[in-house]
Amino acid sequence: MPIAPGSTLGILGGGQLGRMTALAARTLGYKVHALDPDPDCPARSVLDRCIVASFDDVAQAAELASQCDVVTLEIEKVATDGLVAAARFAPVRPSADVLAMVQDRGVQKGWLSRNGFPVGPFREVATSEQLLEATRAMGGACFVKSCVGGYDGRGQLRLSGDARLDDGGGAGGTGGLEREAASLFASLGGQRCVVEQALDLEAELSVLVARSPSGKLAVYPPALNHHVDQILDWSLLPGPLSAAVTGQAVQIALDLAVGLRVEGLLVVELFLLKDGRLLINELAPRPHNSYHASEVACATSQFEQAVRAVCDLPLGSVEIVRPAAILNLLGDVWLDGAPPPFEAALEIPGVRLHLYGKRVARPGRKMGHLSATGRTPEEALVAAKLAMARLSAQAGLPLPGR
Ligand SMILES: Nc1ncnc2c1ncn2[C@@H]1O[C@H](COP(=O)(O)OP(=O)(O)OP(=O)(O)O)[C@@H](O)[C@H]1O
Ligand SMILES: [Mg+2]
């Protein structure tokens, strides 16, 4: 049975994804409650009720659900026990099972490879000795990522081929290497990690698929994503990709959504390698930064689609109405905490500003994004970069175009 407009949607997490989901839900006529540890979380000002509690507060997750008709999430670090407790009061979409698979990198990568999905070489490690052995086995540059808790490149380290722990030089013999591995392991919190071979990337893309509880599917065209320092910098929708790559990426996303029986959204981050192979980087069962352009490019934004999917309404059209680009606004653009001259950016035709209502700007923190539309995605990116140049000039930052 659809959960009709007028009902109440609960969101575990009140960050920017929760805020934009709440806004879309309100447009559709829903009331929105959310749970977040931060009393000033971005969603707060657009909620009917905000429960301030930690993401592992099982009792408060149940309390949220007790006042809602359906519960979803916007962040993976909520406790699966909280989802189980919430499910006693209202349907929880995605389910605790899907979250448990996705929220741990080691479990996720293991599941993907066991189920025949394409992933790059990786090893899960639980001690610094295993870490040392794994970096040796990778035989070159690699990424070491903690299994839980990382995002935007946090909780991970990139080891260059030269500095890798099996190079035998500079670290003072085997004892030195062991110490190096131990300190690396400790710097990631001394917890289970995944060691991945650093892949030779041609491009990065993502695919968003929505699946409703009654099994309806809607898949968006892939987005092309550009990262700087492991953080998403810009994204184009539709991604200018070959028909073959597009077809393959869409098929992977559909197979995953059906295989996992996801209820809500599933985003698949993919690597296109220089040798033409397409490998899965990671999954997210929620709205995603790389589909923010869907708000201006598509007939149905990812946020409205999330609401439609979890409420079992008909899914919206994924048609591209006009190509678009987004550029993330990080705290770096706030000079000494002062906001940049947004009016200068908004003068550029087709450019829009999306701010998340975060009070404190810190380097690397996602504060908002710029979006732009154009006749082509590339043209939209030029407009967004022009707008960004006007903002970053004030902060004395290098011009975009990296
Ligand atoms: N094995 C790899 N080979 C090459 N590049 C990689 C690899 N792993 C990660 N990267 C680079 O680092 C970026 C971030 O990695 P990943 O998606 O694992 O981290 P994250 O912290 O979950 O990021 P986000 O929260 O933005 O998705 C990737 O998009 C890619 O640019
Ligand atoms: Mg990622």
Commentary on this structure:
Residues 167-173 have low confidence and may be disordered. Strands 9, 10, 11, 12, 13, 14, 15, 16 and 17 form a nine-stranded antiparallel beta sheet that branches. Strands 3-2-1-4 form a four-stranded parallel beta sheet, with helices on both faces. A four-stranded antiparallel beta sheet has the order 5-8-6-7, with helices on both faces. The protein has three domains: 8-92, Rossmann fold (3-Layer(aba) Sandwich), CATH 3.40.50; 121-197, ATP-grasp fold, A domain (Dna Ligase, domain 1, 2-Layer Sandwich); 201-394, ATP-grasp fold, B domain (D-amino Acid Aminotransferase, Chain A, domain 1). Helix 6 crosses helix 7. It is globular, with a radius of gyration of 21 Å. It is built from twelve helices and 17 strands. With 402 residues, it is an alpha+beta fold. The protein binds adenosine-5'-triphosphate and magnesium ion. Homodimer. One of its GO terms (molecular function) is metal ion binding.
Q: Helix and strand layout, with pairings?
A:
Layout: E1 8-12, H1 16-27, E2 31-36, E3 49-52, H2 58-66, E4 70-73, H3 80-86, H4 96-102, H5 105-114, E5 122-125, H6 128-138, E6 142-146, E7 156-159, H7 173-187, E8 193-197, E9 201-211, E10 217-219, E11 223-228, E12 231-237, H8 243-260, E13 264-273, E14 278-284, H9 294-297, H10 302-310, E15 324-330, H11 342-346, E16 351-355, E17 366-373, H12 377-394
Parallel strand pairs: 1-2, 1-4, 2-3
Antiparallel strand pairs: 5-8, 6-7, 6-8, 9-10, 9-11, 9-13, 11-12, 12-15, 13-14, 15-17, 16-17
Helix pairs in contact: 1-10, 2-3, 3-4, 6-7
The structure holds adenosine-5'-triphosphate and magnesium ion (MG).
